Amino acid sequence: MTAHLEIRSAQKFYKKYTAVDNVHLSINKGEFVTILGPSGSGKTTLLKLIAGFEELNSGAIFLDGQDITNKKAYDRNIGMVFQNYALFPHMTIFDNIAYPLRLRKIPKPELKEQVNKVLQTVRLEDFVSRYPSQLSGGQQQRVALARAIVFNPPLLLLDEPLGALDKNLRHQMQYEIKHIQEKLGITTVNVTHDQEEALTMSDRICVMNRGRIEQIDTPERLYNYPQSKFVSSFIGEVNWFHGEVIQEDSGMAVVKLLNGQVCKIKAQPNVTLNEAIILAIRPENIHVVREGTTYTNTYKATVLEKTYIGDSFRIEARTDTNEPLSIKLPYVVSREIVVGDEIGVGWHAGDASLIPDDEVKEVTPAS
């Protein structure tokens, strides 16, 4: 499939600071891609480069096969929703949404038809005569979205669009925006630092760190099979164990950890035999070993702390090889576990990932 939006070797410098460092990114038509990263990762700068608000120092940007690298922002015909919505307070909702069409000198009958159509899409047809100050935060957000899509742009950019909303409304709007995007089939690039938002809304997530892309993948693969230490720690909670792959057999990797324990996990193409690795496993993928249950890998662990978090408990423990271990267990499984208990814990071979340990040159596991 030919990329609808393609960024080639993008570089952006501010004096001695590299904000975007040799970024390559291809996005397919109709895809919802989130650029995710901490403050200073380069995600907002990359969005500004796509929008035309900043100029590349080197590289190129193509939209629908056309080179837009040197086009001004107003010539790129891209829709954009800002974090603060940027609505005109003196204009009605109808006029706010109609503004891009008036700039394009769309005839009045067609303009009215397009505005009314998009008002129905965002479910605001009863608010046409109101002003932004008379709307809730979620309603203002939908007005901003309507204004960004009313002229049928080839690309929609979202800059932290839910950052100003409270938690419950933010969750609701995540689904609303995704449903509208899917209905319209519009290629969308979203920028956020909110991991849950990225996992909920995206077809793919692009994780950035220090101006570079660490990994681009589906939410499920990004969460379950991170390819770098940064990605594994930035998205969700994780347990790390250091060691090396000592054997590969029948699709399984045999890993010897620094604590001397040997475990098996599903082989992965990003690591090689005798390479220093980090074994990463999510707390919810670790289970209590009970009678009649079997797991590929098992430990003994002592419970140090137990915290109630609603539908589950977070258990902080220490293994019999003196490794810290975080476990997330369903309420019904863990309600009888108390601090001081020694428990058996286990995990399946497909529930962990292997990450190259770039900080270790040689590995000398315990004998």
From TrEMBL:
Substrates-to-products reaction catalysed: ATP + H2O + polyamine-[polyamine-binding protein]Side 1 = ADP + phosphate + polyamineSide 2 + [polyamine-binding protein]Side 1
Pfam families linked to this entry: ABC_tran, TOBE_2
Stored SUPFAM superfamilies: MOP-like (SSF50331), P-loop containing nucleoside triphosphate hydrolases (SSF52540)
E.C. no: 7.6.2.11
Keywords for the protein's UniProt record, in alphabetical order: ATP-binding, Cell membrane, Membrane, Nucleotide-binding, Translocase, Transport
Cited InterPro entries: AAA+_ATPase, ABC_SmlMolc_Importer, ABC_transporter-like_ATP-bd, ABC_transporter-like_CS, Mo/tungstate-bd_C_term_dom, P-loop_NTPase, PotA-like, Transp-assoc_OB_typ2
Classification via Gene3D superfamilies: 2.40.50.100, P-loop containing nucleotide triphosphate hydrolases (3.40.50.300)
Record-level Gene Ontology MF annotations: ATP binding
Keyword ATP-binding: yes
Domain ABC transporter: 5-235
Superkingdom of origin organism: Bacteria
PANTHER family according to UniProt: SPERMIDINE/PUTRESCINE IMPORT ATP-BINDING PROTEIN POTA, SPERMIDINE_PUTRESCINE IMPORT ATP-BINDING PROTEIN POTA
Family according to the record: Belongs to the ABC transporter superfamily. Spermidine/putrescine importer (TC 3.A.1.11.1) family.
Record's function text: Part of the ABC transporter complex PotABCD involved in spermidine/putrescine import. Responsible for energy coupling to the transport system.
Subunit structure, interactors included: The complex is composed of two ATP-binding proteins (PotA), two transmembrane proteins (PotB and PotC) and a solute-binding protein (PotD).
NCBIfam families recorded: potA (TIGR01187)
Name of protein: Spermidine/putrescine import ATP-binding protein PotA
UniProt gene name: potA
